[in-house]
């Protein structure tokens, strides 16, 4: 059974207005995957971003740093705390996975073009068989380098395109549930 890697599903990610993000159902998709992994007693890793920037919603001790109530890790589930977008950098995640013989990851969380994409790229580069769940991830609208405002769906779609076929395989949650 692959390891479910849940990235940055923290309270602070619920604060932006819903109109600036896509996949408003992502939290329910992630909760469904989490429930399935738990029923199968399969490996789960929760990733939490701890900011190095004072005043950030993800600064230690701020309410935004806490896991969303529906996605709180159980005591036996592994938690990784990171300070940069990539969950493999300075966290011991790679060592934890190898020590348990885990070679396949199913990645969900936020944001598609930031922490999800950087973590999936590294996972693929490290040789993990990596899947990214398209409806279990989401992004926020962003202005591109040329000054054009891009919708959250455009940002999300481009991040998935960047990953698919090179670093990861992008799948729908129905596939993740049927093959897990």
From TrEMBL:
In terms of domain of life, where is this protein from? Bacteria
Keywords, A to Z?
Hydrolase
* GO MF terms held by the record: hydrolase activity
Domain named Isochorismatase-like is located at 3-171
A Pfam family annotated for this chain is Isochorismatase
Name of the molecule in the record:
Isochorismatase family protein
In which organism is this protein found?
Answer: Duganella flavida
